[in-house]
């Protein structure tokens, strides 16, 4: 087991506000569906399935990507990992990193930061 803390920030309120602005016309589809082609490609290849339907096009289920960043991550910095790998492997490998969970629609390019989790180990002895 890893001793440490996981501080999570939820961006649901931000998402609601973006969707509200989109529905009432303050934001266009180009504003909200602006996923970089590379992100879309990664989402199609290694994104995790979710049960949530895309809130914009309602054609596809959203896919989830976990990007990790942190000092000392070396080659793993900025890479995408499965949720399982983050909790089972990376937490033991690295003392301090942040995971950004992004939902992506590979149909219309909607993308949104769902949650960020900062992991910090507090020592193992
Ligand atoms: Zn969509």
Helix content: 25-40%
Distance between the termini: 11 Å
SS elements, strand count: 5
Mean pLDDT: 93
Question: Structurally, how many domains make up the residues?
Answer: 1
**How many alpha or pi helices?**
4
- Alpha-beta classification: alpha+beta
Tell me the series of helices and strands, N- to C-terminal: EHHHEEHEE
Radius of gyration: 16 Å
The ligands bound in this entry are:
zinc ion
Instruction: Describe the strand arrangement of the main beta sheet, using strand numbers.
Output: 1-5-4-3-2
The profile of the biggest β sheet is: 5 strands, antiparallel
- Globally, the shape reads elongated
Which spans have pLDDT < 50 for at least 5 consecutive residues?
none
- The share of residues in extended strands comes to 25-35%
Fill in the keyword field for this structure.
five-stranded antiparallel β-sheet; 34% strand; binds zinc ion; 5 strands; alpha+beta; 125 residues; single chain
